[in-house]
Design brief:
With 110 residues, the chain is an alpha+beta fold. It is 21% helix and 28% strand. It has 2 domains: 28 residues, no CATH class; 78 residues, no CATH class.
């Protein structure tokens, strides 16, 4: 990963810098995955968590209310199976930062 390579270069000059990009970016190491009745699996990261991170990163809402947009689109994982990954994304439509954030991830064949 490019961030880890960059931290390796900067580490001699900035000793307090973490060794890993996962530590620097506060990447979660585990996710609570739930098995569903249809055979799929779902990991919920949270709408509130995504909105809080948008707020922390300085996204300013342009109106008095939040306008949310949701999107989900399946991505095939392998050519040899019908297993797909469905990220569920959210976005603040009326914010100055229009980046999407992950609300949940579903993996299954249907």
């Amino acid at each position: 990963m490019a961030v880890t390579e960059l931290t390796d270069i900067l580490k001699p000059h900035l000793p307090a810098l973490p060794n890993s990009s996962r530590t620097l970016l506060c990447t979660p190491r585990t996710c609570n995955v739930k098995a569903l009745k249809n055979g799929g699996e779902y990991c919920h990261l949270g709408l509130a968590k995504g909105l809080q991170e948008m707020h922390i990163n300085g996204a300013a809402v342009q109106a008095g209310c939040l306008e949310l947009q949701f999107n989900a689109d399946g991505v095939p994982l392998f050519k040899s199976s019908n297993l797909k990954l469905w990220p569920i994304l959210g976005r603040l439509k009326n914010a100055d930062n229009d980046e999407s954030f992950v609300i949940g991830i579903y993996c299954g064949s249907e």
